[in-house]
Amino acid sequence: MITLNAIQRYNCGTGYSRRLRKIYHQLPGIIYGVNLIKKPLLISLIHDKVFYLQEKNEFYSEDLLLIVNKNKFFVRVKEIQRHAFKLNILHIDFISIKI
Questions:
Q1: Residue 40 CB neighbours (<10 A)
Q2: Looking at domain 2-96, does it have CATH number 2.40.240.10?
Q3: For the Large ribosomal subunit protein bL25 L25 domain, which residue ranges apply (predicted)?
Q4: I want to staple 93 with a disulfide (CB 3.0 to 4.6 A). Which of 29, 48, 79, 86 is the partner?
């Protein structure tokens, strides 16, 4: 099982996401699903780690363990948005699953 560490983020928007990508080399993302009671959880991940993990087939087909501020979520990749011609990931969506 692949494990990823993430940080919860409280800001959203185009300007914040661009700053997150360019200055901090992080990737904005979101977790949807049944395990989250109120609303989707906004997160940020390290871009390079996700970029190299997504080259494996297991990244898309298996359950991932996502640790956000000491909370564990079992997730699957729902959607990845990529840059049109650069080798960059712009945004990633996860869906929370029950185990």
A1: 14
A2: yes
A3: 4-94
A4: 79
What is the pLDDT at residue 35?
Answer: 64
Sole residue written with tokens 């840059």: 83
What is the 3 state secondary structure string of 31-87?
Answer: EEECCCCCCCEEEEEEHHHHHHHCCCCHHHHCCEEEEECCEEEEEEEEEEEECCCCC
| Domain segments of the chain as ranges | 2-96
* Token pair 């990508």: residue: 21
Retrieve residue 1's tokens: 């099982």
Closest residue by Cα to residue 74 from 96, 50, 53: 96
